[in-house]
Amino acid sequence: MAKVSVQSLANSTSTRTETAVWRDYLELTKPKVVAMLLLTAMVGMCLAVPALPTAKVVILGLLGIGMQSAAAAVFNHVIDRRIDRQMQRTIHRPVAKGRVSTMQALAFGVTLMVVGFALLWALNSLVAWLTFASLIGYALVYTVWLKHATPQNIVIGGLAGAMPPLLGWVAVTGSLDPHALLLVMLVFTWTPPHFWALAIHRQKDYAKAGVPMLPVTHGVEFTKTMILLYTMLLIVVGFLPWLAGMSGEIYLVGSFALNLGFAWYAWRLKFADEKGLAWQTFKYSIWHIFGLFVALLADHAWYALA
């Protein structure tokens, strides 16, 4: 009876270990971030054609973009492992804690990168190279250099994270289009106030890790001003898809309401701040970009079916 109990305990422990390793590798890919990127890529795909893109394009495109985005996230974990160990928000990440070794993470990231590139190449070479360039932009240019070089790191580096709508568009058409760039502008303008709200909330963490985020180098009040100004700019940029004729009234109303909500949070953060408001602003910004692209998708579907 004792032998059975010991064996059962061993099997249980083994199962827990395997599950933990699987979860660690999943965490390396930043699945929530990748899911949001794939939503924006999907919207780019749908807006590229009058009706619906083919199943082949959607499947290969989303898998390829998703894998390349996940690879960039894995490389970010590896490169930032020293910083991650100093920050409360990231101290428990798999590479920082040693649950996944640097070599294991690199092998995982390279595999995702290569397979993702091959899937996109099966669609067209332009989307494959653009997605790879975005990976390099985030994993190397931003993480290795910009993040430590300037407090404008997230403004410049945000371009890599804004690319998925364009990548989705190019996956379908094989060519660049000015309308796709408007979608990039939406995400590019949204990124700084989104991330700076988090940076205010985690200011001490970034200061401790020596990362020159805007609240660390220029102070919290200046950062609040910049968040407010960028949300004002976001309202203006939000009109562009409608003004360009690529979306209709459903998007117009939805985006205006969402952008006003973001601006309201930014206004309160600047002039009526209270404990936890920066974190609330950050959380709202996530729902904001989700809602913005759902509005684009719903608007396109409505007029495509009409």
List the helices and strands and how they pair.
Elements: H1 2-28, H2 31-47, H3 55-79, H4 81-84, H5 94-97, H6 102-121, H7 125-149, H8 153-161, H9 164-173, H10 178-201, H11 203-209, H12 214-218, H13 220-243, H14 249-271, H15 277-305
Helix pairs in contact: 2-3, 2-9, 2-15, 3-6, 3-7, 3-9, 6-7, 7-8, 7-9, 8-10, 9-10, 10-13, 10-15, 13-14, 14-15
Short description:
With 306 residues, the chain is mainly alpha-helical. Helices cover 83% and strands 0% of the residues.
Oligomer: single chain
CATH architecture of the largest domain: Orthogonal Bundle
CATH class of the largest domain: Mainly Alpha
What's the gyration radius in Å? 21 Å
Distance between the termini: 70 Å
- What percentage of residues falls in helices of 4 or more residues? over 70%
Number of spatially distinct domains:
2
Largest sheet, in brief, is:
none
Low-confidence stretches: 1-19
CATH homology-level superfamily of the largest domain: UbiA prenyltransferase
Extended strand count: 0
